Amino acid sequence: MSLAMKRPLPEPTQTMLQDPAAVVPLLGASTSARIYKRIRLTARKSTGAPPSILAYVNLLEDTAGNSNDALQVLIKISDAMLFDESEFPEAIRKLVEHFRREPESAVRVKTLSLFGDLAAETGIDCGVLIDEVIGLLKGETSAKVVSQGLYALERIGRACVLPSVACTNKMVFFAKSKLFSPSHNVQRHAILLLGRFVLVSDAEKESLELIGKYTDSADARVRAQAIRSMLTLGERGVNLPASMYARACGSLSDDYECVRKEALQLVYQLGVRHPEHLVKVSKDSDQEVRLIDDAFGRICNAICDLSMHIRTLAAELLGGMTMVSDEFLHQTLDKKLMSNMRRKKSLHERNAEHFTSGEWSSGKKWADDAPKELVNAEAVSLMASGACGALVQGLEDEFLEVRTASVNSMCKLALKNPPFAVTSLDFLVDMFNDEIEEVRLRAIYSLTAISKHIILREDQLETMLSSLEDYSVEVREGLHLMLGACKVSTKACLSLVVQKVLDVLLKYPEDRLSTFGCMQRVGQKHPEICMSLTPQLLQDHPFFDSAERDVEDPSYICVLIMLFNAAQHLPPMLSLFPETIVRHYAYLRDTMPNLVPHLNLGGQPAKLALTTSTGSRQFLETLLNNIQSAYSAPQARQALLKAAQENLDRLAEIDPSFSGTANFTAVFFGTQLLMEQLQVATTGQPTKAPLKDCLAQLIRKCLKLQNLFSSLTLEDELLVKQMCLRASALNLVLVVKDRSQSALAPCQLLLHIASDASNFLQENSALVADSFTSAILTKLAAVGDPRPGRVFREILPVVQAAAPVVIPKINTNIKMCKAHILEPSESSGSTDNVVKVTAGLIASVPFVAELENLQESQRQNLRLKIKYPDQNVHVIVPRRRDLKKIMTEQGESESHWRLRTTVLLSHGVWTEASPVDIGICLAVRPNTDLELCKPVKVQFAPKPVKRGI
Fold it and tell me: Residue 831: exposed, middle, or buried by beta-carbon count in 10 A (0-12, 13-18, 19+)?
């Protein structure tokens, strides 16, 4: 549990009802259960306890002759599902008795469904439940009830963490006995149960053959489930033999979509598992091909299926078949079948066949000596005709799902096969003109991924660059990324790229950051071509001095960024730069250090990096050793901690790769300093800073440690939990001493955090808690009545005598979640850029931010915070579609996101323009948020309504 600001908290009983899992055992399990039970009973007194499951089940005895009422009772049990587990054995016994005397099959079906719900959502004994269900189904005659019972067994078996072999064998034996039922639902669920629970050792011998027989069932649902169960066995580790391939291929021509879908996946799995196995191309042919090649052709054939879902699945599966032969792979981009339907033979083979036939041409009949190997197109089976132009067919499909899957598969195949990447280049470029933005983006990102295998020609660049004027900012940024990743072939190509990029920048000035990054990568990849274009791009006349250009011009900045990055890899370029470029380099180097590299311009040597990862680690080790040596001297230790915070903050700015570790250590030291100050206050001594402010800062730092850092080790997590436990104990002690507010909420908070720490220690028994944590947990476990006053008296001596916190070990993998606001920029806060709007109406401000190390669990807590000059604060939840992962040359970034949205501002009349703060934060608790960056200021001026004449 997280710490909270000093504010009114919900009652303890309400908190327990909202989050029952929040209270976990303390050091003493019995004491913990006693505390939890007492709080739960208190909650029931105030809110009304739900009736027990036995109370519901007993109602069934009163409705023995009314099936409708019995069904309603069972529905109520299924909806409640929060009961005392000690009542389950008796409740199950009574439900079984009611099942046996119930005449209506619908009620029996609901009873079996309830057994599955109990197993999935409660801690009931699954072994006993399996025996009961099997016993009930042995004498059952209704196909609906048996089918539901088999499905309930499957749910119960999945709910078991480690089902025993005896229970598994019982379910498998019972499922085999129901395979011969005339009902297709019973057969389907029996096959489902077999695929899920049959033993792996038995599956390879007889179970696969048994399940495989039902692929020829008269019912399509049974056929589909049989193939799905075989796939499930394969996922569980069963070796699917290549002999199943013929049966899987036969199911590809099934009339029902569900069967074809499962058969496609089975063909794919067999092709991937047995790529070198040889199969005949047809029954009446002696020629053989690799199984992966034949499977590839059959899946290609499915791209022409009538069902959109089948076509999409086929296009997706093609991307995983990277071991296919080159001739089959390249055939997917060519709609012409190979060699005019002829199988090539050598001259010796043709002469031998002609001689052994004993026939000679008489010349009386036209073409009577035609080659014997000429065959009919319909009889050709050397390569499945579906492989011819299959990916082209997918790219031209009417549904965007198929086109997107085809583009993704083409990218995966091209990454493994450079010649195929060159062949597929033209087809990916054509997809830049697709009508759907998502498809265009996938094509752009795919081309970026395979950029290392290709070189762009001028005719291809024309199509690409025409897409730069797309209305979508994501498409334009994707093209900037792609152009920076690819290489061009000639000087004319690079000139075309630069000119088009600069022209589009004039039309979309908001793309300047993306354009700068594009030109930086273009210069790095084409130093030789950039050198030949330097005089032309700089407009440097060989005889006359040219006018000095404006260094604030974005187009000129783009050219300089490209040339400077090219000169980094080709130093002779520096001699081509005029004197004005030297001054401009110094300016851009200071304002854009991430885009402009170090160069030896103006006679000054290139600067070296300020630090390295090795130097950062040595600095941090020295810092921690100095603090550790002053462990027993409080004044020296506190002075070192204060100085260490400043040094670590500076280290985080200098070395970005070490910033997470430095920030974590700095926040940890700051928390320790505040604790030592507050610990002095618990003894009654006066402190320099107000206690409330110190407590608020302490709570906020603890929240940062809990929510802003990722990739922590178990030792780091334990340190954070111990730190939060100390903070909550200090909070309770100081609140009780202050006597100005209720101590119930701080006491409950301490119990919650202590429970969390105790549970963490029990799950990780190798970890050892410090003396303070052990003492606090022992005291709380011994408290019979955890009231604030009693808890205060128990923990007060421990808090006053607490030793300093253990210093964390160096963990270089720690990442800190942070944000960088790109738009509005810092210049938006100047008086020259004022957002004007009529008072009461709405002004929209574009907002773009990049977030680093944002985990999936933190996305839902992301907020935009708007603070007006009158201290009104608005917190906005951004739309999910506005937050997207940042694309790089290597693909999607795992934890780097870009937030692109619009912030709406509105207010009453102001006399003059005033700054409005717009920031981005994480809402970790109600009314508590953590800022991820410094807010940007926007000058906002709501004007009064102009009256007409």
Answer: exposed
One-letter amino acid of 619: F
CA–CA dist 487, 483 (Å, integer): 8
What element of type H or E holds 248? helix 245-251
Q: Which helix (H) or strand (E) holds 289?
A: strand 288-290
For residues 860 and 879, give the distance between their C-alpha atoms in angstroms, rounded to a whole number.
Answer: 10
Burial 637-675 (b: 16+ CB within 10 A, else e): bbebbeebbeebeebbeebeebbbbbbbbbbbbbbbbbb
Q: Tell which residue, 579, 571, 559, 558, has the closest CA to residue 598.
A: 571
The Cα–Cα gap between 27 and 36 comes to 13
Find out whether 432 and 403 touch, Cβ atoms under 8 Å: no
On whether the CB atoms of residues 825 and 932 are closer than 8 A, the answer is no
Residues 447, 486: contact at Cβ < 8 Å? yes
Instruction: Quick: pLDDT tens for 292-326.
Output: 999 999 999 999 999 999 999 999 999 999 999 99
In DSSP terms, which residues pair with 821 in a beta bridge?
849
What are the residues facing 936 on neighbouring strands? 918
Are the CB atoms for 469 and 507 separated by under 8 Å?
Answer: yes
- What is the sign, positive or negative, of the torsion defined by CA atoms of 565, 568, 569, 573? positive
Structure tokens at 754: 């202590």
Whether this model's pTM surpasses 0.85? no
Half-sphere exposure of 716 (CA within 13 A, CB side): 19
CA–CA distance, 717 with 763 (Å, rounded to integer): 13
Q: Which CATH number fits domain 817-943: 3.40.1800, 1.10.3470, 1.10.10, 2.60.40?
A: 2.60.40
Checking if the pLDDT of 866 tops 90, the result is yes
- Of the CA atoms within 13 Å of residue 556, those in its CB half-sphere come to 13
In degrees, rounded to 5, the angle at the alpha carbon of residue 102 between the alpha carbons of residues 96 and 104 is 130
pLDDT in tens, 633-665: 777 888 888 888 888 888 888 888 888 889 999
Assigned token pair, 540 = 């440097």
With CA atoms as reference, report the closest residue to 945 among 836, 862, 787, 855: 836
The answer to whether 505 and 514 have CB atoms below 8 angstroms apart is no
Q: How far is CA 468 from CA 125, 242, 437, 891, in A?
A: 63, 49, 13, 20
